[in-house]
Each structure stands twice: as C-alpha cells, then as structure tokens.
Amino acid sequence: MKNTILICGYGPGISHAVARRFGKAGHPVALIARNVQRLTEAVAELTAEGIQVQAFPADLSDVKAIRRAVTDVREAMGPIGILHWNVFLDIEGDLLSTPPEDLGKSFDLRVVGYITAVQESMDDLAASKGTVLVTSGVMALDDPQINAFAVDYAAIAISGAAQRKATHILAHTLAPHDIHVGEVIVNGFVEGTPGGSGKSNTVSPTDIAEQFWALHTARQVCSVIIGKAVPIAEAGIHG
To answer: Which residues form the signal peptide (predicted)?
Structure first.
C-alpha cells in the first residue's frame, strides 16, 4: 500500500483537489484543519469516491497540537510519505493598519507551524524518500508589480515570502535524505473559493493539484508557478 499523504490546512479549494488527486492514485489521505464540519463533509465526499481518508481536527497555529496530530495520523494510517502544507491566515490590511499581533500569527502559521510539521514527519519522510509539498502565492515573490498588488494584503505577503524562503532552504536541507520539496506558487485567486468569487484570472484547483502531482512524481523541479493574474518576469518563476 502507498504511504499516506498528510494535508495540513484542508479547505474546499486546492487541498480538496490535492486530496482527490493523490487519493485516486492510491494514497491514503489524512486531513487536518480546525473546522470539524468541513472535515466531516470532506471525509464523506471523498469516501464516496472510493478514497481512503480520515480527518484529524487540530489548530495548526499550535505547535503542540501539530505534534499530537502527526502522531495520531501515523498511528491511525501508517507512515507519512507526503506532507502537503496548505495553510495561511486570511488577513487584509496594509502595513500601517495591520495589528502587529496579526503579523506574528501569520508568520507563526506559515513558518513555525510548517517547519514543526516537517520535523514531526521527518522519520517517515526519510524512510520513504518522501515529498514535502507547499502551497504558496504570487505575493511571496519580490517584484515591483507584485509588491504594489500586495499593499492591502501585507501580512499574507510577508508571511508568504518567509514561507517561500523556508521552503527553499528546506529543499537543500532535505536533499541529503532523498526527500523532495515541491512548491506551487498560485498567481491568482482560486476558482470556486470565497476569495475567487467574482474575480478574473482565477486558477483551477484541479490544475494546481496536477502541478503538485507532477512535482511529486518527477522529483526534479522545486518551484513552479501557475496562473497569470499578475504579470511577472520569467526570472521569478523558478527558484
């Protein structure tokens, strides 16, 4: 049997598409999020599609909760061969209006929680020569047009940039253990989610999931971008 994919930060968009894509390929799927009702509905829907899936409610801003959840997943579903970090805090506001506490919460979630999940899954990932997959957004890139676009999303942009830096350092850190790191940078709002409602240049979550599948199976590229909401230089696409 294939190793479990642990999806941290489950929601109806990207992570649901990833759960379906990897689940249909035979990977047992573990879902972590705070929203119990959303998790219950997801388990029912994915199970009806023939996917082996379980939910593990937890607050991913709490380091102790992450550690407990990873342990629970391992005990219930076996070794974790793929970790998908799909977590962010939806905070709007510029740098003059965003409370410092919110900046800290966003950083803790996107970086501290992320690295905690990797550390707790490390033995399994190393044993299976597994994969760490990370959802990022275009505001994480340093580009004049992107920075102008990100003015009213300061906390998301800054924490996203920190997560991206952590991801690329992590890629070098995990390479000697034969663990591949793959990042998909979403350049646009996600189709079918509240954030994508009424927006143009939306990106299909199914297409994003296919990008994650390609990163996992090919194990060559670390970072790819999908979507065209903000024009950026080709140099900003791969890193």
So the answer is: none
Q: Would you tell me how many other CB atoms lie within 10 Å of the CB of residue 210? A: 16
Give the other-Cβ count within 10 Å of 96's Cβ: 6
Residue where the block lists tokens 């379980």: 54
Helix (H) or strand (E) holding 224: strand 223-226
Domains of the chain as residue ranges with CATH:
4-226 (3.40.50.720)
On whether the CB atoms of residues 132 and 174 are closer than 8 A, the answer is yes
Residue 12 tokens read as: 């109806």
- How confident is the model at residue 193, as a pLDDT? 67
Residue 153 per-residue DSSP state:
B
What rounded mean pLDDT belongs to the chain? 93
Strands 53-55 and 29-32, by their bridges, are parallel
pLDDT of residue 197: 59
pLDDT at 48: 98
Q: Given this model, what pLDDT does residue 192 score?
A: 74
